[in-house]
Amino acid sequence: MSDNDNRPLFQKILENNWVLLAIGLIFPLVFYTIWGFFELYTLPHIDYTKEFANYVQK
Amino acid sequence: MSIESPKNWWQPIGKTEKLWLFLAIFWCAIMMFMMIYGHTRDHNMSQESYRTTPEKFRAVVEGFTEKYRAKDANGKPMSIAIKKLGGQDQSIPVVDARDIPETPANYPNGTRRSKGADVFLLATNWKFTPALILKKGKTYRIHMSSDNYQHGFSLLPMNLNYQVLPNFDLVLTITPKEVSKSEEGFRIICNEYCGSPSSEEGHHSMSGRIIVKE
After folding, report:
1. What's phi and psi for B29, nearest 5 deg?
2. Which of B8, B51, B64 sits opposite A11 (nearest CB)?
3. What's the complex ipTM?
4. What tens digit of pLDDT does each residue of A27-57 get?
5. What are residue B107's phi and psi, to 5 degrees?
6. Is B105 helix (H, G, I), strand (E, B) or coil?
7. Which of B133, B120, B113, B116 is nearest to B186 (CA)?
């Protein structure tokens, strides 16, 4: 393949199985798993003793 | 490779492919704007979530139930019987939330994203407690959580469906617009499988009640 250096960039990407594997793993990992964890763990805590003090004994 | 591809197969995009891409992106744009339009027409209920713990949520539900427990004509605390398949009926306390005042929203200064009266609903094995009596036309913020497993909140016959998870307090803002046709009210069923320890009780018998009155 050393004489095929004039291949377009996208052809080089789509012909490289390892790059495709990396993209297939990284994209769902970032946009589903990592983003999902970030959304869940940045949810605010609710303090019932402050907002609903009538119902909850401290 | 067993089949050789042409040396440089990446070609400029053709006319048919351009048309196909244009149609696909155009349809995606239509669906995107339909979703935004749907929000203005109440197609999707806005919801907010907070982190909590089963112990804290159970404590606030018990306090809420004790404070607003409905009483019958004889002054005794009211309960409603949920019929189980075989075995004994399950008794759920009834809470009258008609007189709870609506609290204004304070977001973004605070966390309250909507105006409404706060009521609490706990999903546990195997019932939704307490049964709520709501007032027609009044806005309520229903806090829902579970104290053990993942449950599904499904309000029938509206078919409103939400996941109820332990460690998360889901707040639904709703305004009931019709009165319950019977004393039993609207039924809540669990639509996320949560266990079947016996033929008498389990996920299949798990339910709750929301009764709307004037």
Report:
1. -65, -40
2. B8
3. 0.70
4. 999 999 999 999 988 998 988 888 787 776 6
5. -80, 140
6. coil
7. B133
